[in-house]
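Follow-up to my post from last week.
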Amino acid sequence: MAHAALSVRNLAKEFAVGAGKVVAVDGVSFDVRGGEFFTMLGPSGCGKTTTLRVIAGLEQATRGEITIDGRDFMAVPPQLRNIGMVFQSYALFPHLTIFENVAYGLRLRKLPAGEIDRRVASTLALLQLEPYAARHPSGLSGGQQQRVSIARALVYEPTMLLLDEPLANLDAKLRVMMREEIRALQRRLGITTLYVTHDQEEATAVSDRLAVFDRGRLIQLGTPEEIYARPQTLFVADFIGRANFLPARLVVRGSPSSGVALPNGASLRPERVVRLDGAEAAALPATDDGTVMIRPEHVALDPKEGDIACRVQRMQLLGGLIRYSVRADASPADILVEVTRPLPGIAEGSGAFLRIPAADAVLYHR
Amino acid sequence: MTVRSAPVTGVPRTAELDWAAWMLGIAVVVIALVFLVYPLVNAMLLAFVKNGEDAGGSGLTFANFARFFTAASYQRALWNSVYSGLAATALATVIALPMAYAVARTEIPHRGLISAMTVVPLISPPFIGAYAWIILLGKNGTVTQWLHALTGWTLPTIYGPPGVILALALSYFPYIFLIVQGALAAADPHVEEAARMAGASRARILRTITLPLVFPAIGAAMLIVFIKSIGDFGVPSILGGEFQVLPTLIYYQIHGYFNLNAASAIAMVNVLLTLVAMAALSWIHRHRNFATIGGTSHAAARHSGKSARVFGNVYCWLVILIAILPQLVIALASFARRWPGTMLPESYTLDHYRAVWSQLTSPIANSLVLAGAATALCIVFGTVTAYASARDRLRARWALDLTIMLPFVLPGLVVGVAYLTAFNSGPLVLTGTALIIVLAYFTRRVAFIFRSVATAIGQIDPKLEDASTICGAGWGTTMRCVLVPLAAPAILAGAILVFSTLIGEISATVLLYSAKWKTISIAIYELVLGDQLAQASAIGTITTVMTLFLVLVASRLAGKNMAELFR
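User reply:
Got it. Predicted complex:
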């Protein structure tokens, strides 16, 4: 039961606002395999939370289909869908003890009292919450409250687990710790999980697959590795990880494979070439045919030789990473270079040279 | 949980349809239309119809309103209402403002107690206090005689405008005190601090910054006092003498001539006065739209000088003494065997209480039953509508808010007239029954619960309902297990407030009661008219003490102090 497979087809959700309407979700389709950890990722207002709430049944879809294991889900009222949900604000019942909070769903299912006690106890144990059973939510820390929220969602063995930005209210270190706990729990139970977040690092760290949303549309779906290495749009390239964007003009008009010329004159033949669609293509400056994207860890920085001359503006020490911001004619913005060890001969203010490996560069063109 | 036992039943066993929501929704709409909208609209229509005819007949006419141009008594009543209303408001403002400033901005001790004590005049029905003034300042009044013996000076009669204005002002000034004090306490202190840094003196700051910034609050409070003064029936009927005002005029039109049309017309004029006052207020404030509630954690500076404290103390306690003097006098009178105009009664007795106990158990029981039934109705209706309003579930939310809040601001007499005219004939005849009184009470007070519960629900995270739903609860269960327990303090506080202020309600009751359903307030009223002041005092004291106790309990439950309940 917990390995339910979800299928979403052409889902759309519009809200009436004043005299007009707002399209929150615009024709989204995807499949989630049984037991998969599936994340919907995107900036605020992109429709990921609305999609989740429609799947939960808390909102009515304007159009589209949702099936679970082949059965139509849309006709089922939310209280009968047998899913578990964890909210950003935890939404624990303040007037009930932790025990009663977790037992809530079981009591609604009219289980005998002994059975309820047993299941609640084992779920609390699973999430290391036994000492807090008699307390009220206000007596617990944020991280503990979040675990209670998860316990409440899992105790009645739902077909799916939905999590709506569950870690956003926690501090940074706790967030990293909790996401690993959630991931481990999910692996152990094998429950189909739908996760929503705006934090791309969180998403890439825990998900089996992730779906990037922007303005109500699903832009790209894939594993974290695929999305990082082969982003299909400039938006995705920029949203996941860090990216350098260099303006590019085609060497031979109309022939993307012929290579590009960068603003400083250097030429480059990116191995991967992606065609941009309408909106992003139109947003390119008229003088450019496209943009070359290269990740900071792939750019080579050398004090003496390279294709592009530059000057080092800033050197940031970030724990296990060193980030150089350099200014070059090749790009209007500073180019970021990331290495794990400091480069000899390069300091703030010094001149240097960049080399962009064609194998790691991606050309996005009209 | 690695070994999966027999699967949980998966889906909650009973598929709860949301019929609970539908039923309640329909019931609420029906009640709102029949008992809130219909009476008021009907009364409005009746005002435009000649007496003795019905609305469909010869069409609408202004005949009832014409009396205001032809009959001297009507004109006098209108003028008297305006005059006494304005005078009472002015006097109340003069009394309350220094007190509000003293409590909000000086270091006098027991500020909480002072605020709590100002609630006393609000919860004891004003007309109970009105005849206290007769005891003190009447022809054979204690103070009158004492003053005469001391100075040879005879006080002018308490009956007529002076008495009415004084009693009204002392009954309603707490509204101005509470609201202005609240505004002063909550105002952003940075503006005044900036002025001090620039070198302004304390007096100058008070005159040019502090007072102007709380003008909106003062104006709103004055409006409330004006509306209540022109709608008050009890005080002018006891202390007015020949001084007629619109509410007493309405009363005589009904009890004297049973001319509902004329009564409705007068009520409409009363409402018109209210609207004119509201329009005047918003015109005065048309250029002022500034927010003074800042997000700071510290309050404005307080005067800590000795003179400020002494002054503040003396003034506040003096005002409180005068304000609760009626209640004290009434209590004293209830124990007095004879009080022939000396300072204190000659001798004391419990006879009056014994008489009250044996003869007047019926009105007490009636009041409790009627107030109780109305409160129950308020709770159910008020909570459901508060939920719908707070969760923004309705298209025409403004209509609901208006329907509930409008009867609250109308004078009780107007509501009484509306109910009398609406249910005197036609499809639903309720006059003379208990039901009409209960419904009129409900109409007047449901706004209390509506407001406090809507606020409470607004502070409850809507995700709690989502979480309950996802766990498998239908709407009814979510209400029962999550929302109502969390809103319970607000519901309870509102309910106790409703109940306690309904026990002494007179303005609507006086038009709707029947011989079988006399309430405490009617009993007191009749005793006062029959000059049995001692017994009236006994039952009045019981009422005041009971109400005070209930309000205290309500404030504990709501976690606030008494003063905040009334803001």
